[in-house]
Amino acid sequence: MSPLTPYTYIQCPCSDQTVFHPGGAASDPEDDDRAFDPKAPRSNYSLYPIEYLLYCEDCQQIRCPRCVTEESVTFYCPNCLFEVPSSNLRSEGNRCTRSCYQCPICIGPLQVGAIQPTTDANLLPTQYQANPSGGPYALFCQYCNWTSTEIGIEFDRPSGIYNQLSKVNNGGKPKLTLRDVKDRRKDNPDEPPVPDDQVDADLQFANLKAFYQQQLSEANTSLRGLPLHDGLGFSSPAALTRIMSLYTGRGHQGRLQQGPADIMREALGTNDGLKIANLDESSDIKKLLEGGWGATASLDQRNEQPTESGRFEDELRPIAYLLRSKRSKRCPSCRHIISKPEAKVVSTRFKIRLVAKSYIPTITIRPLNPTAPPVPITYRPMVQEEAPLKPHQPYHFVVTFKNPLFENIKVTLASPNATPGRFSSRVTVLCPQFEVDANTDMWDDALKDDEKDRSRKADEGPEVGKIWEKGRNWVSIVLEVIPASLRLDQQQQQPGNKGERVDMSPLKEGEDILEIPMFVRMEWEADTQADMEGPSSKDKEGREKRELAYWCVLGVGRISQE
Amino acid sequence: MSSKRHSILPAVDRSGPKPPVNFSTSLTISDNAVLLGSHSITMQAETVIHPRSRIESSVGSVLVGRRCIVQERVHLGAPPDNTGKAAGGVSLGDYVLIEAGSVIEAGGTEIGEGSVIQVGSRIGSGARIGKNCTVSHLSIIASGEVLPDNTVVYSNGTWRTDKRGTPELRKLSIVKQIAMLRKMIPSNPDKFR
To answer: How confident is the prediction for chain B on average, in pLDDT?
Structure first.
């Protein structure tokens, strides 16, 4: 059983309509709002720790990674940190073209080095020096000791690896390109097409691309009077609207029928990019018999390859680094940008970042009487492990609300008396309504005489309707929980399950974790946005009442299974 | 306030019997190294033992070959969990590099010539590591495991064969490292005799 530290997840309202609740025992029929069920399969997708959430100031709503719309700001290589313009991306693909490669065996970064090391005594042999006169060169992995000589690839120059590598096959033979094939055919028109085993993925792709381009251009010329200037014909929005108008039959009907049939022909041969699967695997079997398990590539290694690769380690090629992107995030409803990183690759700063943590209170939960001993300072990153909760025993938890706003907030809490799910535990919020002071200057806390607040803790126990502890911008309240028993034979006796079929299936994964759904409603008075409203705001003295309400889930701990 | 920085780690345990040692005259051993145990400890020519390394011969004798490097906080000859069964000590071949924080358990453990045990690895008791092997960082070799020559252990215990064929270059690098370390580490073999 993995340890469980108490946690708080917040539900993003974007999926509010989709939360399906099959009228279980948990939902109170008198309540017109159904309680949120953290154990429902859909809830997985709408619960986030507060750090993951953003906040839209205009909609005054929480936004999660699932509901924001993203836009790419920059593309860059994670290895050389060079920014790649999006025009290059379109022409050269989404991989780095600046000699950044990953090891095909262990995905570590590869380094270029001379195969014959220099005799310079001050160098470690593993750090081969780029000697201008030296060579040949190869790619080296410092982690798993792979080198590109294992697949028979060497380089003449230590720079421009991308170009050199794209011209050579594994084993050192030059790669057959479309241009070579065309030249050959020009010299000798009767030569049969290249045999399939010599056609690699790149050549096949080039053939197929040429074939489609030719077909499209033929199809385009057939649509006379409808010039489609775009390179591939059908990808620009203007072309698309024109095509759509053809289908809806407005205007161009007469012309369309004049042209020849605009049907593309199928690829017929190697030159059209057709490659017939090689079902004769006898050579592979022979190779496997010789090389054994060690010569084969793992599934992960083959999946990392950009093109489909064979089953053997010597068919793997160095992997060019996949580019990454920085993205800005927009609110889905008002289209305002709520997160925008700086465009510079090396900068980790943000131009705009509206995180939920600075708009809604941070909720933390901890046991009132911890069973785990405190962790000594020297072992500090260690996680405290609480003992599992015993069924039918009241437990108290301290829930702390920390206010990030500069105004006082009024918080109202609501939680179902019994947690939803098969094993419903009893929950009581001892103080469901309270006010949290504003996030004022940090030193106020030190200067303020808060003796009277502290003294409460010396009292014997939590009291109903009273705040447990209070500080400058935070308030703690106490939550009482009586965990349910996880024994299935006790399920039937529960009064809530009358007339319904009791699910007697064995304990499912995660069902022993006690999660409490809680509805948080906060109310505060904020300055009205002066720029939005004109003189009328002066009448209201620049204050307006605001509220925000959301569901959150408090993960309390595991229930013991005895 | 005292200007001396105190380590949060517990003090090094130097208690225990002083083992009989058999040192080469060209050995470099820091007097901060810890040698203990009852069996003999042999260290051959031009080997370098860093400060704070711990060499224990309580289970069996320890042999360190020629031109080896044993780095800081290495625990050579650590008693294995099942002390009862283990017999024999640790023997390192020539040109073996044991990087910082590694633990080599005793009990007939052998590390072949030219092998590198990288930072924080653990070699179980009775494991036999071949020649020119690389055990990458934080790897764990189980007790009694046998690694063929030129094996690379990486990525949580995956094995592959090193096909570079450059053992001579590795030896050269060790020789250069030793030449530098001999200047850096003050040697005091007499302390342990």
So the answer is: 89
Confidence (pLDDT) at A465: 80
β-sheet bridge partners, residue A55: A62
Dist CA A397 CA A480 (whole Å)? 6
Which residue of B134, B155, B173 is in closest CB contact with A125?
Answer: B173
Among candidates A125, A147, A378 on the partner chain, residue whose Cβ is nearest the Cβ of B170: A125
In a domain, B4, yes or no: no
Q: Between A and B, how many residue pairs show a Cβ–Cβ distance under 8 A?
A: 38
Range of the domain at B128: 21-184
Q: Using an 8 Å CB-CB cutoff, list chain B residues near A116.
A: none
What token pair was written down for A399? 């829930």
Whether A150 and B163 lie within 8 Å, measured CB to CB? yes
Q: What is the rounded CA–CA span in Å between residue B138 and residue A497? A: 54
> B155-170: buried (b, 16+ CB within 10 Å) or exposed (e) per residue?
beeeebebebebbeeb
| Contact (Cβ atoms closer than 8 angstroms) between residue A554 and residue A419 | no
B109 within a domain of the structure (yes/no): yes
**Rounded Cα distance, A146 and A144, in Å:** 6
B6 assigned to some structural domain: no
In a domain, B111, yes or no: yes
Q: Report chain B residues whose CB lies below 8 A from the CB of A124.
A: 173, 176
Is B134 an 8 Å CB contact of chain A? Answer: yes
Q: Which residues of A touch B154 (CB under 8 A)?
A: 106, 143-144
Measured CA to CA in angstroms, residue A248 lies from A241, A253, A256, A261, A262 at distances of 10, 10, 13, 18, 17
- Distance to chain B for A373, nearest Cα, Å: 20
Chain A residues with a Cβ under 8 Å from any Cβ in chain B: 105-106, 117, 121-122, 124-126, 143-147, 149-150, 294, 378
Picking from B61, B16, B18, the residue whose alpha carbon sits closest to that of residue B43 is B61
Instruction: Determine, for residues B169 and A145 on separate chains, whether the beta-carbon distance falls below 8 Å.
Output: no
Give B22-68 pLDDT, tens digit per residue. 999 999 999 889 999 999 999 999 999 999 999 999 889 999 999 99
Alpha-carbon span A393 to A389, nearest angstrom: 8
Each residue of A126-183: pLDDT tens digit? 444 444 456 788 999 999 989 998 898 989 888 889 989 988 888 888 888 888 888 8
Cα distance from A165 to chain B (closest Cα, Å)?
20
Smallest CA–CA distance, residue B8 to chain A, in Å, is 7
Measure the CA–CA gap between A323 and A94, rounded to whole angstroms.
6
Per the structure, the count of domains in chain B is 1
- CA nearest to A542, candidates A551, A534, A552, A554: A534
Interface contact B82, partner A, CB < 8 A: no
Contacts of B152 in chain A (CB under 8 A): 144-145
* Residue A67: other Cβ atoms inside 10 A: 19
B163 CA: distance to closest CA in chain A (Å): 7
AA letter at A318: P
pLDDT at A74: 92
Which residues in chain B touch residue A147, judged by CB atoms under 8 angstroms apart?
A: 163-164
Q: How far apart are CA A22 and CA A176, in angstroms?
A: 62
First to last CA, chain B: 39
Shortest Cα distance, chain A CAs vs residue B152, angstroms: 6
> Which of A121, A143, A378 minimises the CB distance to B154?
A143
What CATH code is carried by the domain that includes residue B91?
2.160.10.10
**What b-and-e string marks burial along B31-58, b requiring 16 or more CB atoms within 10 Å of the CB?**
ebbbbbbebebbbbebbbbbeebbbbbb
Distance CA A517, CA A10 (A): 10
Domain residue ranges of chain A, discontinuous segments joined by +: 7-33+361-558
Q: Which two tokens stand for residue B19?
A: 């083992």
Closest chain A residue to B167 measured between Cα atoms?
A125
